[in-house]
Amino acid sequence: MSDKPENETRNYLPIVLALTRDLMISVVLAFVIILFLYPPVKVEGTSMMPVLEDQERIFINKFIYQFNISSVERGDVVVFYYPHDRSKSYIKRVIGIPGDVVEVVEGQVLVNGVKIEEPYVPAEYRDQMSYPATKVEFAQYYTMGDHRSSSNDSRSWGLVPRDNIYGKAVFVYWPLQKLGLLH
Q1: Each residue of 31-78: pLDDT tens digit?
Q2: Which of 11, 95, 139, 182 is the most core-located residue (most Cβ within 10 A)?
Q3: Which listed residue (47, 151, 154, 168) is catalytic?
Q4: What backbone torsions phi and psi does residue 16 show, to the nearest 5 degrees?
Q5: Tens digits of per-residue pLDDT, 84-120?
Q6: Is 92 annotated as catalytic?
Q7: DSSP characters for 39-89?
Q8: What is the DSSP letter of 35?
Q9: Taking the model in full, what pTM does it have?
């Protein structure tokens, strides 16, 4: 009778050790993934409304642009260092890619002389401003916020160098009601 509890303890020890090992591996993998591949970012400001709102939390994909797995494409929502102060990060939508000519005429965006469709910009977030045609040079990008009347973007400070772009917004995780992939 005295041997029974000792045998039961010995039977559970390999299971407890295996679970502890698996938990530690999971924690390390999660840390590496979050730190290096998909770091969390807090949205500050209203310039990307309604797609992203102030104080939302998102994951960005740093891997995709870091190793040129994918090029930065028109329509991508990117996170980048502000061109005039690399201590600040911005999140905006790519409107013009290298070789494009971007112009804004009374709030309508033209790329290479053609008005682009922007279903992500509701009418109430548009402005009626005009900006001269800008040629997007090699390794540069023209970015704009979706809340056009409330965005500090390429219309104000110019193009974003490719080296400043460090991530693509991919997933909203907070608040929970907006949980999901960004399109």
Answers
A1: 777 676 788 889 999 999 999 999 999 999 988 887 776 789 999 999
A2: 95
A3: 47
A4: -65, -40
A5: 999 999 999 999 999 999 999 999 999 999 999 999 9
A6: yes
A7: -EEE--SSTTTTTS-TT-EEEEESHHHHTTSS---TT-EEEEEETTEEEEE
A8: I
A9: 0.82
